[in-house]
Design goal:
single chain, nine-stranded mixed sheet, 27 helices, 8% strand
Length: 733
């Protein structure tokens, strides 16, 4: 996979699509500055605008334009940045859907079995255009006008007529897919047809087909690692411009919801994802096998599954091993269906997709069939949340494609992954609820109001939203009520999302795994900053630290939490209280400390895998990855890496050092030094002579004869003007 090509394609595509949407809106008389009114010669059947050069809008297009204007006016009335956000949303809608369709056509997953973006016969027109006459049933039927357009397009082969036909066929395919993959191909607002800007013969679509090899999309191509890395990198690179704009804002600028998503997107390299899941989900399953009586060692079981980054636990003191045996013994009844996994900041779904692969290994090893396993994983094992709707769409798509890979009928069965976007539900009211569910009880309405209040600021708090003592049971009961025919699909879907998100946030998991957003408190707006101070006083300095603290509580006793975060929590004084709490309540099983740029970002990071158990004197495994280990695209084949820092140590040792730094590399001799009697027991430690800087000179500023060099007492200074003084100078990092 050539990331330079992927980067250029995604960045160029973003700029192209955004500009195309902006130009299309301008042609419709809609700009950021003003919205044009129809010219006087307009009628009910035809509306004229100066920008259309005499060509009127007719029929449904008149209504579509009015819907665009109404949508922008509504958003603007709420004080939001409306126009640019709308342009970005439309552009990404086409990017997202076309990327998904490309993946599906390469793997022959499209319901029609016909390519939408490319030709299997090397023609310049996509197969959906070439075989339009044969696809009426597969695309949901044609109207008389559709038949006329197909005939006219191929008779004249006029570029504008062919483009119009392609747009109609494309939208018909989207409509079919929205029924099978509603989380990805959400039913489009009707006005989106008026803003269809991609072209099959120039720009984004042919460039996608030309520049990125089909093998990169092919799930059966082992070298590509499936679609996971490709979709993840495309998503990150597409957001490059938005991320740059957000980060380059003045330090005083506070990020709002959409900016938080753009500014904090960091794709986790595949080998790090594997390390995290093999040493959390994998470790828990290996422990359950040993508890069931498996005679193999940890290493032998890991080798059986080909988990190349798995690190067996160190030999433990007898008293610690006794505690571990008791806790691990409770895993003897653990079944694959019970291995629940949450990614609370899932991004494009990279961790969830590898979790799918790892779970597939576990199920198959227990004798399950592939098809049953794939369905079980979707229904029982995987859960995900994100602040960014676009990320949720891609994550859902990635997981569903895994399901489809193992079950050919998956897309028509209606099984959907439990992946959701956490946001505000302020658009919902109890009046709407009563219309949708006539049998709703007063208790359910009260629970509904409480839930809506809880998510008031969820556009910025996301997965960290505190649901407290919210009574979820009455909400879940809404699923069992009959819906009124007046209830729209959108309302039912929104209520369902609210209930599902509440249930996910309330649930405990065997494993939580994620790469949380990294954002310091200086970028938090008042809402998020006050939320952080109230709920996370020990972690308020950064979003990642808030995730690190919060989601330890979402793990069942004996389960694992695996996060890749900035390394700063390990050392900085601002996180000292957080370290003390984590070390007191949880046990560090593994910590992989990574130098700058190992993750492709210019600061150090760390994978921390903790167990929800307080195991005093547990010997954890700590090791280092250097920048040189991943230089020029290298990928570590195993861990630990010879020559790098590596230690197996008791986390209680960190408490012996002032500030509790996670100094895993220090030797037993250094630790012993901290066990010794402190200097303060021998006397008071003072800073020494403090002199006003106005009386200080550099050596070269004073004549040498005026300096006394070896004064032992005050009398020695007589006759000299200057006395040497040791001073460390100003503060330096």
């Amino acid at each position: 996979m050539d990331k330079k090509i992927i980067s250029k394609f995604a960045i160029d595509s973003h700029l192209e699509l955004v500009e195309a949407v902006r130009l299309r809106l301008a042609v419709l008389g809609i700009t950021e500055e003003a919205i044009s009114s129809p010219l006087p010669e307009s009628t009910q059947q035809a509306e004229f605008f100066p920008q259309l050069n005499g060509e009127p809008l007719t029929g449904d297009d008149i209504l579509r334009r009015r819907k665009i204007v109404a949508h922008l006016s509504e958003v603007s009335s709420k004080g939001n940045s409306h126009f640019e956000d709308f342009v970005e949303e439309v552009a990404y809608t086409w990017f997202n859907r076309i990327l998904a369709i490309r993946f599906m056509e390469v793997n022959d997953y499209l319901p029609s079995g016909t390519r939408v973006l490319s030709s299997t016969e090397g023609k310049s027109e996509p197969d959906i255009l070439v075989y339009a006459n044969d696809l009426e049933q597969e695309l949901g039927g044609y109207s008389k006008d559709d038949h006329k357009l197909i005939e006219a397009a191929w008779e004249t082969q006029s570029p504008s007529t062919m483009d119009r036909l392609y747009q109609i066929l494309f939208m018909k395919q989207i409509k079919i897919l929205s029924k099978q993959l509603p989380q990805v191909f959400e039913p489009l607002d009707d006005y989106m047809q008026l803003l269809f800007v991609p072209s099959y013969h120039q720009g984004f679509i042919p460039e996608l087909v030309r520049s990125i090899p089909e093998a990169s999309f092919d799930l059966d191509n082992d070298d590509s690692h499936g679609q996971v890395q490709l979709i993840g990198w495309l998503y990150q690179y597409y957001n490059t411009d938005q991320k740059t704009k957000a980060i380059e804002q003045p330090k005083s600028h506070k990020f709002r919801g959409t900016e938080i998503a753009s500014a904090t997107q960091i794709f986790t390299p595949d080998w790090i994802v594997r390390y995290m899941l093999q040493n959390s989900v994998g470790k828990l399953w290996i422990k359950s096998l040993l508890a069931k009586g498996d005679s193999r060692s940890e290493t032998e079981i890991a080798e059986h599954f080909q988990w190349q980054y798995y690190m067996p636990e160190a030999a433990q003191p007898d008293d610690v091993q006794l505690l571990i045996d008791v806790k691990d013994g409770q895993l003897s009844d653990l079944r694959p269906e019970q291995l629940t996994i949450l990614d609370p900041s899932m991004g494009s779904g990279h961790m969830l997709v590898y979790a799918f692969d790892l779970l597939m290994q576990i199920y198959l090893d227990q004798g399950y069939s592939q098809r049953i396993t794939a369905t079980n994983i979707i229904q029982n094992n995987l859960f995900g949340l994100d602040l960014d709707k676009r990320a949720t769409q891609l994550a859902s798509f990635s997981v569903m494609m895994k399901l489809r890979h193992y079950d050919r009928r998956a897309l028509i069965k209606g099984n959907l992954p439990k992946l959701f976007t956490v946001n505000s539900f302020g658009d919902l009211t109890t009046d709407q609820l009563e219309l949708a569910y006539p049998e709703v009880t007063e208790k359910q309405k009260n629970a509904f109001r409480s839930a809506i209040t809880v998510f008031t600021n969820a556009n910025v708090t996301g997965s960290l939203t505190e649901i407290g003592n919210l009574d979820i049971a009455p909400l879940a009961g809404l699923f069992e009520l009959n819906q009124a025919t007046i209830a729209s699909g959108d309302l039912s879907e929104r209520v369902g999302q609210l209930i599902n998100i509440c249930q996910i946030l309330a649930k405990k998991y065997e494993v939580v795994v994620t790469n949380p957003p990294y954002m310091g408190s200086s970028r938090m707006d008042d809402t998020l900053a006050n939320f952080a101070k109230k709920h996370y006083p020990n972690a308020k300095a950064d979003l990642f630290a808030m995730f690190l603290e919060h989601f330890q509580e979402s793990v069942v006793p004996g389960g694992y939490c695996a996060m890749v975060t900035m390394q700063s929590w390990m050392f900085l004084s601002s996180f000292e209280s957080l370290r003390q709490t984590l070390l007191a309540k949880y046990t560090i099983s593994n910590l992989m400390h990574m130098e700058n740029n190992v993750m492709g970002i210019a600061f150090g990071t760390a994978v921390t895998i903790t167990r929800n158990a307080s195991l005093t004197n547990f010997i954890g495994t700590y090791h280092q990855i250097k920048t040189s280990d991943v230089a020029s695209g290298k990928i570590p084949s195993h861990v630990p890496i010879a020559g790098n820092r590596y230690n197996r140590t008791n986390q209680a040792n960190f408490g012996k050092i002032a500030g509790n730094p996670i100094s895993y590399w220090i030797s037993p001799a250094v630790i012993a030094a901290f066990d010794a009697m402190p200097v303060s027991n021998y006397g008071k430690v003072k800073s020494g002579i403090m002199v006003n800087s106005g009386f200080l000179k550099q050596w070269y500023e004073v004549p040498a004869p005026e300096i006394i060099q070896n004064a032992r007492q005050q009398a020695d200074i007589k006759g000299f003007s200057w006395v040497p003084i040791n001073s460390g100078g100003g503060y330096m990092r």
